[in-house]
Amino acid sequence: MKKRIALAAGALLLVCLVILWTGNHSSQAGIRRFVLSHQTELEKIATDCLSQGRMVERYKGVEVEGVYPGASPIVQFYTGGRGLVPSAAYWGFYYSESGQPAAYQNVDMELVPVSENEWAWTDGTDNGGVTRRIDAHWFSYQAWF
Fold it and tell me: How far apart (Å, rounded) are the C-alpha atoms in residues 59 and 63?
């Protein structure tokens, strides 16, 4: 009886660890992996949002925030966050039809190159963020306020 309970507990722990490992869309590596492995479906969602205004609320546990207009509109996806303003951080990814990087929610901020595929922005206070290229039209973001 004890052996059966121990085996069941071990199996449950293993299942939980697999779910946590495969469902981690909050780390940069997790976001990148998620976008690249679901790119076709995500691109369909993004182009539908941009061209037809159609939007789904979620895709595989990731919130589709919507279209943020600007010179180069983006479709932003939210994967996680922590804290409350004035000490909050958010992260996720976005689709840029033009392939141009953008600040969080496509606000009009100067993006300062950090490297070939990474840019930072700030509003001159402690608010800021970074965006990193994942693929031609896909970027991850982190923003803090």
Answer: 7
